[in-house]
Amino acid sequence: MPSGFGREILNRPILDGAGDTLGYLSDFSFDPRSGKVISLLVLISEELDPALLPWPVKKGLLEVPVEEVAEISNAIRLHQ
């Protein structure tokens, strides 16, 4: 079950370094040992070709490492 903060940021837009929308936050991936979030699972915008993005797609969701996150506000902004 997501925490209050987890529910609060689900469905927020994910913006690349140029400010373009990649998609929306769908879920998180966790390290089973530490319980830390290791990646954001992003529902990709329909007009984007996931093959052109630098991150893998698993089960239809783009897997963006948390190290790529530059800022969390009304949107989640990435470094690149």
- CATH architecture title: Roll
Residue fraction in strands: 35-45%
Give the SSE order as H and E letters: HEEEEEEE
How would you classify the quaternary structure?
single chain
**What overall form do the CA principal axes indicate?**
globular
Number of strands: 7
Structural class: mainly beta
How large is the radius of gyration?
12 Å
User: Unreliable runs, pLDDT <50, ≥5 residues?
Assistant: none
CATH class: Mainly Beta
Helix content: under 10%
Q: Average the pLDDT over all residues and give the rounded result.
A: 93
Q: What is the CA-CA span between the terminal residues? A: 30 Å
Annotation keywords:
mainly beta; 8% helix
Description:
There is one protein chain. With 80 residues, the chain is mostly beta strands. The chain has one domain (4-78): SH3 type barrels (Roll). The protein has 1 helix and 7 strands; from the N terminus they run αβββββββ. It has one helix spanning 4-9, and strands at residues 13-15, 21-30, 37-44, 57-58, 61-65, 69-72, 76-78. It has a 7-stranded mixed sheet with strand order 4-5-3-2-1-7-6, with no helix packed on it. A hairpin with a 2-residue loop joins β4 (57-58) and β5. The radius of gyration is 12 Å and the shape is globular. It starts with a helix and ends with a strand.
